[in-house]
Amino acid sequence: MEPTDLLTIGEAAARAGLAPSALRFYEEQGLIQAERTSGNQRRFRRAELRRIAVIRAAQSFGLSLDEIRGALNSLPDRRTPTRRDWEVLASSWRALIDERIAALERLRDEADSCIGCGCLSLQSCGLYNAGDRAAAYGHGARYLYGDDRGKTG
What we know:
mainly alpha; Multidrug-efflux Transporter Regulator, Chain: A, Domain 2; 7 helices; 2 domains
């Protein structure tokens, strides 16, 4: 391996558009790997930049680090994702992303009305959640989570 194939943490962070602390965090979380010099300094293979890009893209989709870690760990030998790997990963995340989009749309459309939290403080809550009927669905803001208002009545 050529020395130019290894990047210092500062070089890798600058290229990835992140702070060095973010790379240290990703490494601690097992998302990326660094080699160590005899002086215990981190050196990142240039290919780790692609893993970092996949991590950042997945985070922008709203995936948790656990979900991202699971996806990256599914790759053989912790390899850097290929174009095909990315297509498979992105495709597998589609349903999750669609669910999150639907949840955000509900939040946008219903944030100014009863969310089924049980407080019954809004005038409309008496109509949508009389007697805290939403409690039958469980804890929290049930209507905001997508439970159907019509089924509680």
